[in-house]
Amino acid sequence: MSRPVIAAPAGAALLARSAKRFANETPIGRKRRARKMARELAEAHPDAHCELDFETPLQLAVATILSAQCTDKKVNEVTPTVFAKYVTAADYAAADRGRLEEILRPTGFFRAKTDSLIKLGQALIERHDGELPGTLDQLVALPGIGRKTANVILGNAFDVPGITVDTHFRRLVNRFGWVDEEDPVKIEFLVADLVEKRDWTMLSHRIIFHGRRVCHARKPACGACTLAKLCPSYGTGPTEAAPAAKLLKGPRARDLAAHAGVDPGLVPAAAITTPEAP
Ligand code: SF4
């Protein structure tokens, strides 16, 4: 796919022109465009996956709780110690608070996270024989588990399709013009209506990957984005290839440039090793 050729200029004017192209879109038109964008994202991010390391549903619940206000990378550095020491719900329920706090300290908000894990262990023993339940209603009733965490657990540990509305997802689906909404639960239902249920979990990963690597909060790489032709927010970031390519991040930054029809040689080596947004 080649990058759209749109003359350089003026951010605001260009952005207005992009938005105007989709201003009269019908609901069915939006659904078709959303599905096309979802297919583009699948091609652009074949490596998309849950970036938290885990082997069991309980481990994923713990890792997701620890990921609040913390990078997945940092969580993955801490969880091997946690998982070696605390294997069952009973282990968390009986944890020595001070010792667990010390282990969790690098993830931030460690007192609150310790509290959540101990209460989660206790609730699992009291209500679910120590096992993590596999339904949204049961999960969100547990301490420390909100709707976002529950959907991560359902989608990745139980193979039940779930849409994860994190900060990247919320920003991107608004930029995509899929929604005009900030409330995570409303966003979840609106996006659920646009794409096939079987795609929910992977679409969430791909959108989050795109948000971390291409469509950044402050300066999205519009000129090196595979979604440019389909995005009403094209022009939010630089649209020329060279400055946009410099904004790409992650180990596949050059592949992402090539996929968008941009010379991969424009991606500096540092982009490949620069840490992505959490
Ligand atoms: S990088 Fe630009 S073109 Fe791509 S999705 Fe984000 S706002 Fe749209």
UniProtKB/TrEMBL annotation:
EC numbers, comma separated: 4.2.99.18
CDD domains: ENDO3c (cd00056)
PROSITE patterns in the cross-refs: ENDONUCLEASE_III_1 (PS00764), ENDONUCLEASE_III_2 (PS01155)
Keyword list, A-Z: 4Fe-4S, DNA damage, DNA repair, DNA-binding, Endonuclease, Glycosidase, Hydrolase, Iron, Iron-sulfur, Lyase, Metal-binding, Nuclease
Protein name from the UniProt record: Endonuclease III
Residues at which [4Fe-4S] cluster binds: C215, C222, C225, C231
GO MF: 4 iron, 4 sulfur cluster binding; class I DNA-(apurinic or apyrimidinic site) endonuclease activity; DNA binding; DNA N-glycosylase activity; metal ion binding
Needed co-factor(s): [4Fe-4S] cluster
Taxonomy, superkingdom: Bacteria
Annotated HhH-GPD domain residues: 66-213
Gene Ontology process terms (BP): base-excision repair, AP site formation
Reaction(s) the record says it catalyses: 2'-deoxyribonucleotide-(2'-deoxyribose 5'-phosphate)-2'-deoxyribonucleotide-DNA = a 3'-end 2'-deoxyribonucleotide-(2,3-dehydro-2,3-deoxyribose 5'-phosphate)-DNA + a 5'-end 5'-phospho-2'-deoxyribonucleoside-DNA + H(+)
UniProt cross-references to SUPFAM superfamilies, sorted A to Z: DNA-glycosylase (SSF48150)
PANTHER family associated with the record: A/G-SPECIFIC ADENINE GLYCOSYLASE/ENDONUCLEASE III, ENDONUCLEASE III
Function description: DNA repair enzyme that has both DNA N-glycosylase activity and AP-lyase activity. The DNA N-glycosylase activity releases various damaged pyrimidines from DNA by cleaving the N-glycosidic bond, leaving an AP (apurinic/apyrimidinic) site. The AP-lyase activity cleaves the phosphodiester bond 3' to the AP site by a beta-elimination, leaving a 3'-terminal unsaturated sugar and a product with a terminal 5'-phosphate.
Record carries keyword Metal-binding: yes
Co-factor note (free text): Binds 1 [4Fe-4S] cluster.
Enzyme class: lyase
Sequence similarity: Belongs to the Nth/MutY family.
